[in-house]
Design goal:
By secondary structure, this protein is α+β, with helices and mostly antiparallel strands. It has one domain: Rbstp2229 like protein (TATA-Binding Protein), CATH 3.30.310.120. 31% of the residues lie in helices and 31% in strands. The chain is built from three helices and seven strands, in the order E-H-H-E-E-E-E-H-E-E. Strands 2-3-4-5-1-6-7 form a seven-stranded antiparallel sheet, with helices on one face. The termini are far apart.
Length: 144
């Protein structure tokens, strides 16, 4: 059975909405900084830190994409952006954007580790609320 983690953009987050293209840009930034770290330590760290290629199918255009593994120890990770309706304590409704990270059934333990790493990176970057695969919640936004 597939497993899901969510990065929710709450009112305290740095952004209230995000697109699939913006998520790809953040992942490209991640690959850039890990490659620079690898250059500093004279090791191909970028290949180990991000052993995937970003791919998108026509039916998921603008809604989801996937990371296809370039290493036999990994399989794939799906990433999508959607919105949900949230009822506030005062009874009003608001639309909340979230990023869903899905591990398909064929995913390996390596995929789960990398997915957790990417989720934490995205949540820190966006100051979001991270709902992990094990249903625990991590808060990366300023709380009152």
């Amino acid at each position: 059975m597939a497993e899901n983690a969510y990065i929710k953009l709450v009112p305290s987050s740095s952004k209230q909405t995000i697109t699939v293209e913006e998520v790809k840009e953040i992942l490209n930034y991640y690959t850039d900084i890990t490659a620079k770290t690898g250059n500093q330590v004279d090791w191909e760290y970028g290949d180990s830190a991000f052993p995937y290629v970003i791919k998108e199918k026509d039916e998921g255009k603008g809604r989801w994409f996937y990371l296809q593994s370039t290493n036999e120890r990994y399989y794939a990770i799906l990433i999508g952006v959607d919105q949900e309706s949230i009822r506030e304590e005062d009874g009003t409704d608001r639309i909340q954007t979230y990023i869903q990270v899905t591990l398909p059934e064929q995913s390996t333990f390596g995929d789960k580790g990398k997915a957790n790493e990417f989720c934490k990176f995205l949540a820190k970057k966006l100051q979001g609320e991270l709902h992990l695969f094990n249903e625990r919640i991590m808060y990366f936004y300023p709380r009152k």
